[in-house]
Amino acid sequence: MNEQLSVETPEQIDINYQKAGIGSRFYAALLDTLLLVLIILVGTYVNIKFVTELGDILGNWLRAVGGIIVFALFWGYYMVFEITTNGQSPGKLALGLRVIKEGGYPISFADSAIRNLVRVVDFLPFCYGAGLFVMLINKNWQRLGDLAAGTLVVKTSRKSREYTGINSKVSTPAVNISREESLYTDWIKPELVTESELGMIREYLLRRSTLSTIRLTDLARTIGYPIAEKMGRGGDIRYDKFLEEVYTLKTSESPKPVQEKSDSPSESTE
């Protein structure tokens, strides 16, 4: 089965990912399960200890509250991490995996809720039997939860993404860079930015004036988060501004509208 996956955004920008196979997803799920079991064991121990010390009335009340908390942890574990860490639970982070939408965008709370609620069905009859069967017959290794939510699990290594698409070889016109004060240049490492990533950034900067605010924000995060992550940052930053500064530093341009020269060695296409 082909492990390469081409995701085309509505802006006709293609991003190639490497699919996460059954093996890597199994080990990620195993790590998450072990962590979940540890959380539940600690929570159960603490709950029992308090129940014993507080007596029957308060103890019974606390037992009920503790049960609700453990239940919430079990069901909310994946959703909380996937929403707050851009599609990565601790197990996925350790294995270099990420959950994304089929259109290449970060998943929303609703997407994560759907894929994880359907996890119950995937687990049937035991040990993810149904989910494993569906993954084996699905070209994108999607389990039932992924199919229901319209999500994919992909690898996040540097070489797993390549920039392609209808504009991958265009000679770039002017790229407008804002005159705002630099925010992230003190920790940006241009040497970590690959040519394919630079191409995606360039295409984004050229197209952003035609995008809606929501699309612009989602696409900037989709492109910028993995780059910022490589540089040891990420999270709550202005990805549109971050991509501007990465492009400026990588191409040694001043932060103002510029006309790129097509014969510049740094702008040659492969």
Walk me through what this model shows.
Helix content is 52%, strand content 9%. It has 9 helices and 5 strands, in the order ββααβααααββααα. The longest helix has 63 residues, at 22-84.
Concise description?
The chain is built from 9 helices and 5 strands; from the N terminus they run ββααβααααββααα. It is mainly alpha-helical and 270 residues long.
Strand order of the largest sheet: 1-2-5
- State which percent range the strand residues make up: 5-15%
Mean pLDDT: 76
Number of helical stretches of at least 4 residues = 9
Please provide the count of β strands.
5
Query: What spatial form do the alpha-carbon principal axes imply?
Result: globular
Can you give keywords for this protein?
two-stranded antiparallel sheet; globular; single chain; disordered C terminus; mainly alpha; three-stranded antiparallel β-sheet
